[in-house]
Amino acid sequence: MTEAQSEMTDGADPLDGDDRLEPFFGSAWPAVKGFHDLLVDQGELRGLVGPREFSRLWERHLLNSAAVVPFLPTEGRIIDLGSGAGLPGIVVAAMLPSAEVVLLEPMERRTDWLSEVAESLQLDNVVVRRGRAQDEHGTLVGDAVTVRAVASLEKLYRWAIPLLKRGGTLVALKGSKAEEEIETAKHVGRKLGAGVASVVDAPTIEGVEVTRVVRVVREAVPGVR
Question: Order of strands across the sheet with 211-217?
Fold first, then answer.
């Protein structure tokens, strides 16, 4: 038994085996469950998931990632910025098979992991790309950008909004300080062509903490009519 699996035994995830999970994820369930199992097996070993996270893997990570899906386009290109372990990008790709999901991540060991996961789960709509957002400006453009636990919105706007085409949407998973971050970042957003940001509560299954999502549309691309 691995250390991660031992942790699971000592503090089991209360949602493991919950019969609401499969209907919630629908046709994406086999891939999402497979991703969960890969994280349990290798997540701690590869420095992707802390040992205390295994008892809340479903709620804090997988369902939390799934909460962004209703706010994303079902087709086109979605860029997952700073994809890390694949949260929310792998979950998004599983749930939106008609969209191209670009997992943008600067660390080689993480891009190796993401490529292995996409191949193992047969997620043909995933493109793994090694790099930083600011190095992709003017090269990589998407219909939406997702991001989770990367930086404050003020920094995030500078990285993410230039990756959006006009009319594209930034969908960021945020916590209790979302409104405060929106206020601080609004001038930066305006310079980059972003509209007014909003905070939306995104529920998943009953009893699970509601995810807070920040949405902002790029209404204009400076210098482009």
Answer: 126-130, 99-105, 76-81, 142-148, 164-174, 211-217, 198-202
Residue 19 has which token pair?
A: 């019969």
Residue 200: name the closest of 225, 185, 178, 224 by CA: 178
Tens digits of residue pLDDT in 62-105: 999 999 999 999 999 999 999 999 999 999 999 999 999 999 99
82 is known to lie in a ligand binding site = yes
CA angle 63, 68, 71 (to 5 degrees): 150
> What are phi and psi for residue 196, nearest 5 degrees?
-80, 130
The verdict on whether residue 87 carries a ligand-binding annotation is yes
Length of the chain: 225
The answer to whether the predicted template modeling score (pTM) of the entire model surpasses 0.90 is: yes
Give tens-digit pLDDT for 124-150.
999 999 999 999 999 999 999 999 976
What is the SS3 string spanning the chain?
A: CCHHHHHHHHCCCCCCCCCCHHHHHHHHHHHHHHHHHHHHHHCCCCCCCCHHHHHHHHHHHHHHHHCCHHHCCCCEEEEEECCCCCCCHHHHHHHCCCEEEEEEECCHHHHHHHHHHHHHCCCCCEEEEECCHHHHCCCCCEEEEEEECCCCHHHHHHHHHHHEEEEEEEEEEECCCHHHHHHHHHHHHHHCCECCCEEEEECCCCCCCCEEEEEEEECCCCCCC
Which residue bears the tokens 């916590």?
Answer: 175
For residue 134, say whether it is annotated as part of any ligand binding site.
Answer: yes
